Amino acid sequence: MDVELRQLRCLVAIVDEGTFTDAAIALGVSQAAVSRTLAALERALGTRLLRRTSRQVTPTGTGLRVVAHARRVLAEVDGLIREAVSGHAHLRIGYAWSALGRHTPAFQRRWAQAYPETELHLVRVNSATAGLTEGACDLAVVRRPLDERRFDSAIVGLERRLCAVAADDPLARRRSVRLADLSGRTLLVDRRTGTTTAELWPPDSRPATEETHDVEDWLTVISAGRCVGMTAESTANQYPRPGIAYRPVRDAEPIAVRLAWWRDDPHPATQTAVELLTTLYRNG
């Protein structure tokens, strides 16, 4: 069964315009072409879609259902065409847990002021590529390297590693902690998107781990005191919680913040975004 978009457009035009003659005018074709196209659609579907009299054209019961579906299909196709043609008027930047930390508001404001012709959208997608693989974004903020065969990336800044503990945890009374302070605790990690693994510790002093896949769940478990966490500084900026204390881990390496994109299909605004973010991180 082959149903073509032009057949669906023809059906909708007949119903909207009320006659074959008016539908032909709206579509810019002959009345005979409208009749042939509708007949072909009815043959393809194996059912009658319209009742035709000398005065009016009305949909059959099946025709009403087909017209409703046709409208949705045509709207989706029109949206697809608009996205393909004007996609560069939008820039979608994905992130998994935290966007750009304290730089997020400044980045959004500066972008809107300097590049009003390209609308910026931040999209949270908790996946390893922060939405790139899923097609949810054009660029992605990631904090660990991606597959270099498919993606390009640029480091735009560095962030400290922070420990997250319950507000009444003894470690919360300290100004900073060391990795050794966490070795006897249970560490809550996100293996898909997170930057923390037990490999940060020596083999003989690694903490136990439990796994989560969502930052809200991570915060809830840590605030209850059952686990501790370690994360990029941006998480503390984006998710302050009364029941959570964030403390710097002074002997842990900082985390590189990368902006990543598809190697074979970079957005035209990619380099501009890289430069602005690098400036923001450099200036603190």
UniProtKB/TrEMBL annotation:
Name this polypeptide is given: LysR family transcriptional regulator
Keyword Transcription appears in the UniProt entry: yes
Pfam families, per database record: HTH_1 (PF00126), LysR_substrate (PF03466)
InterPro entries named among the record's database cross-references: LysR_HTH_N, LysR_subst-bd, WH-like_DNA-bd_sf, WH_DNA-bd_sf
This protein's UniProt keywords: DNA-binding, Transcription, Transcription regulation
HTH lysR-type domain location: 3-60
Superkingdom to which the source organism belongs: Bacteria
Cited CDD domains: PBP2_LTTR_aromatics_like
Recorded family membership: Belongs to the LysR transcriptional regulatory family.
